[in-house]
Amino acid sequence: MDKALSIYCDGGCHLRKSDGNYEGYCGIYVELYEKSVTSYYNSMSFYLGKDTNNEAEYAAFINAVKYAIDMCDSGMWFDAIFIFCDSEIVVQQVNGIYDAIPRMAILRDLANNLLEILRSKVKVVITHISGEENKAHCKDWIKLCKGR
To answer: What does pTM read for this prediction?
Structure first.
């Protein structure tokens, strides 16, 4: 494979002690491989406001897919795009293995619509990974975003 894009995504929530609400964060970490050498990387984090953990995981996944579409639309060419996510629920719902409750089905359908656009441009591989393998681990984003 000559050129591949790897995107790691993660989302999560933490409890605000001030009011007892959960606030969500997500992030993506991007690596571009050319002839098996990392030639570029980037990372982004997003504050989501009041959210649930699963919604934050979906927000991370959706942002990863949008980023990949933008890279393709900018004229970049890839043999494949790999999206790595440590949320089993998101990966299995997007792949049609798990059912989704109505609120999550809206996010799943949005993710699948974006994936359809991306798959019309390039081969896409979605992989479930452990939190320890995730280069976009949410604990890091929460630390960064808390200072916002």
So the answer is: 0.88
